[in-house]
Amino acid sequence: MTSYGTKIKAAALCAAMAFGGTAAKAEMEYQDVSDLLHLVMSSDRTVYTRMIVNRLAVKEGVIKASEHFEDDKALVLPAQMFRFGAEMVAEETDAFSYSLLSLWPINKQNAPTTDIEKEGLEYIAENPGENFYGEEELGGVNYFTAVYPDVAVAEACTKCHNEHKDSPKTDFEGGDVMGGVVIRIPMDG
């Protein structure tokens, strides 16, 4: 269970971030903030993948999921849904950012581009169930950077990746780490 004090700190954090503040202003550890953000992201992503995409596209077969969802009149892929959310957040705040990256990206723009992204993705792939935390400097700004495993939570995940013509890895199984969620929080002022 969560203590009352932790709930108060979390509420202060949410209020501070909603009004353009940072984790430091709410006196909450960067890792705690990142872990809470990831919990929400991961939960939403898993629900969409299992209850919408996997149920409708794989189990019931009433509609497909497609990277060309508009042209195909199909469901948005879970990775695309995640990216769209990240883009909307980026338009609203610079208090944090997030992305979905992989060592085996179907779309090359989802490959790691910084040393810490690569190190984090390698770490979570080699250490299932563990997260990676570090700090990096980008464009003169210091960031707390966390990398969380993105796991195949449904058949729709493995089926899509294993059958995609551009997939560099085609032997994913349920529960495998397929990539990572990277969360960055600026540490400066």
Can you walk through the features of this model?
It is a single chain. The protein is of the alpha+beta class. The chain has one domain (4-186). Helices cover 45% and strands 20% of the residues. The chain contains six helices and six strands, in the order ααβαβαβαββαβ. The protein has a four-stranded antiparallel β-sheet with strand order 3-6-5-4. The chain is globular, with a radius of gyration of 17 Å. Residues 1-9 have low confidence and may be disordered.
Count of helix runs: 6
Mean pLDDT: 87
User: What is the total number of structural domains?
Assistant: 1
* Helical amount: 40-55%
Global shape: globular
- List how many beta strands DSSP finds: 6
Strand % is: 15-25%
Query: Within the largest sheet, what's the order of strands?
Result: 3-6-5-4
N- to C-terminal separation? 32 Å
Order of helices and strands: HHEHEHEHEEHE
Uncertain parts: 1-9
Structural class assignment: alpha+beta
Let me know the largest β-sheet: 4 strands, antiparallel
Cα-based radius of gyration, to the nearest Å? 17 Å
